[in-house]
Amino acid sequence: MADEHRAAPEDAGTIELNVNGASVRVAVDPVTPFLEVLRNDLGLTGAKYGCGVEQCRACAVLADGVAVPTCATAVGSFVGRHVVTVEGLSRGSDVLHPVQQAFLEEEAAQCGFCIPGMVIGAVALLDRTPDPTDAEIRDSLAPHLCRCGSHARIIRAVRRAANSLAEARSVAPAAGGRPR
Amino acid sequence: MSADIVLPASLDAHPDLDTWLRVDPSDTVTVFTGKVEIGQGIVSAIARIAAEELDLAMDQVRVETADTVHGLNEGHTAGSMSVEQSGAALRQAAAEARAHLLGLASAALDVPVDALVVRDGTISVDGPADAASHGEPPWTSGAAGRSVSYWDLLGGRRFDRRASGRVRPKKPSAHRIVGRPDARRIDLRGLITGDTRFVSDLRPDGLAYGRVVRPPTRTASLVDVDDAAARAVSGVIAVVRNGSFLGVVAERESQAVRAADLLRRRANWADGTALPAAGDTATWLREQPGRAFLVVDGTPITEVDPAVDAVEPETDGAVESASGEPWTLEASYSRPYLMHGSIGPSAAVARWDDGRLDVWTSSQSVYTLRAAMSIALDMPMERIRARHVVGAGCYGHNGADDAAFEAALLAMAVPGRPVRLQWSRADEHQWEPYGAPAYLEMRATIDGDGRVSDWCHDVWGTSHLSRPLAGGRPNFVSGPLLDPPVAMRVPEPTLGKEVGIHRNAAPIYDFPRQRIVKHFVAAMPLRTSSLRSLGAHANVFAIESFMDELAVLAQVSPIDFRLRHLGDERACAVLTEAARAADWHGERSTTFGHGTGIAIARYKNRAGYAAVVARVHIDDATSRIVVDSLTIAADCGEIVDPRGLVNQLEGGALQATSWTLRERVEFDETMVTSVDWETYPILRFPDVPSVETVLLDRPGLPYLGAGEITQGPTAGAIGNAVFDAIGYRLRDMPLTPDAVRRAAATTDSAWAAAR
User: Are B546 and B444 in contact (CB under 8 A)?
Assistant: First the structure.
């Protein structure tokens, strides 16, 4: 019984991942939840443990541009995918991602625990739907839970981000303006 | 200044300026608060107040929140009193610190204090640099433009002074930071970039990971456990058993999860007592042998016989006016057990090393936690340090203290290793201390002039106070599991002004005869404690629903009916402002299925005022109540941080919308069955109304707490809007689609009759 759960790093092979534009190797059992690897092995604690059963999206990251939960998905299934965490949106730069800047300007956070997931969800939405309606914003954020009641501000922040991204595109169409 | 010098209470208790402020060696000033950041923005409010009084830029102020090594014990961070208490103390301390620094500068520059100005911590001699050539007073000769900074004068050194109360803080008209909308919360950026380290994010060197195995019922005891399989999981460092407390520590988090799961499956428990019948908590409360107290001016003054007195009004029968017959109306209301439901389950880090215990916690009171741990662990307090680290949203007494204690139990099994305990989602849903349920019976008589002459309010509930050290006990959820057990307190009624069950039981209205009775139910099959606004949510829901029912009876607009009973001008102002902002004048809906409602309260009858107008419609297909908009008007005294204030007011209103429409802790005869977000649904984005907030600023008037003031009025406004929409009065929260259908099946709609 116990043998099937052996997951010591020394027993495990290494897994190669692409996180925030860099290639990283981790020595973990491939069935380890990806969230644990991000938070405990890579020190990327922006994604949070909220429920462990994919019901709140506090753990969301971008995988090939799509917002996905990580709390109940094995690290092995992220091999070969380009993963971007909330830290990767602005890391190494004083300039925030336009979505983060919009959250800042709208003060769209209270305790802030759910906010990294919200930012990731909003980036994925605007990548897919650059000019979302209010209903589209609400629907796309429906899997994300907030308990402090910051919803109204978060919606405004996403709207603001859409506007600033559109502005950036019209100023420099050749540069593309897609968030990355 | 008048002869009566009154220091703010927190400053009076801790008068040394060094307790509050430190001029760092260079560039910054550190301010200390005994309060903690729980998402209410206190760090920013404190920083703003300090920057204002000390004439510093915001980025020159650092804030350190509660840590037992500071010795600045300001009690719990609760009751919407952070700014009221800590802010007021720090404002005075900072003003005195500035005056002291100006005195030092005056000596150093050899000019009178009057001639000095401060900007960003640099004190300069006022006037143009060439003042001497313009016939200025002799002391300015050669002095104008010279300067000395706070850091030159006192950098890295102590004030060694006590607050005197003889220095006046700035006049509001001189404020350049406080009350201005342009400065943001200083902690916002880290929250948005993911850089902020919550307590569940801490990764000290040598970190190990802990999990706890919960009993299958509230009172089960552990008979035996086969821990061989758990110990065989690679990376497991320790299996911890103390009585019925069971936990595990491992090198990796998933190893701890796996081992805890194996322990759970191999543990034999003797089941304890069953839970009372599910689903009808209101009836259960009403039937419990409670203790009853007559509440006068918000304070329970005398115990009364609940069997006799509770049903007798103070005056027998209603007064009959000259112009007509009096009417008497009765109605009962309720709210279920509610969860805090933080998005992050409780977590804590503890390290036991060389006989000393270090705890990192998101507790609302690190001092109380330390004292409670000292009792429960039978360890001198001096050997425990508890420091605050931000946690996921805190709306009262949640599992943070319990997690800190359990982390300590695990850490003491692995000396030298810091252990991070993470509660699972099910741990949190099933074991957090819930918001107490309430049952209310209201009765009022309206005289022939359409005024309330008699008002009776009976409210039943369980304790709102199970915090550590309440009743002198540690009160940790795992305490009773230990061998020997560390028992929980036996709940006692709280008899202070405006606390617990009777918070906001006193109406805001001037009714000539009032009779308010608090019924305290000691039994606590599910642990209950402080949840944002305590009894105010249910009491204001009942009062404001009932006022609406009376307004209908009196055939008066709900706005006018309230105004005719409101003597407090500030209350009248928020009520009329909310209605004006919502562009609603109290007229009844003319479209079935769509309605508008209003409600008002002054939280604790002494904190901030809030009035809310809700517009709702009922979805035809699902019977679901959809809140389309909330309009809030609030008067919280002088405004420190308008954007932060709006965030608190709106957040409270949206959370209350979720409580009022969606939430109820479900349980069967053995255990809570709300174990995740599907079995305990809360408000999601598609359900969120638009929210508009209007602030009534009162410069120069005292700060009034805002964090809990919209819960009650929001609930009342929604209930009233539902009645306006469909003519059915829903009196039991949550106001679910089932409740709408049940009401429609058993009641004739009053919709047409009310119009």
Answer: yes
